[in-house]
Amino acid sequence: MKVATSINKSDIVQLLSENIDISMRKADMIVDKFFEILSETLSSGNRIEIRGFGTFEVREYEGYTGRNPKTGEEKFILPKKLPFFKPGKDFKEKVNRK
Q1: At what angle do helices 24-43 and 9-20 cross, to 10 degrees?
Q2: Is 24 in the same domain as 38?
């Protein structure tokens, strides 16, 4: 497995293709479907727990009054939902061992 300073989707597709000996096209379809499932699950308000890796969930943030640092003008910031990832214990330990 190649070691990189960063990795993108095409790198994941290539690694999957090489590691389980499938075509790049099939690996691309698998990776696309995986991300589609993650997105749809989170968009519908559900959480995803992958034991040993971590938990994905959507957190809701209330609106608040913010201030433009340049002009000092106050502006109301609308409530929002953002995806959140909490790494699992095994994953944190593996990262800290490297």
Answers
A1: 120
A2: yes
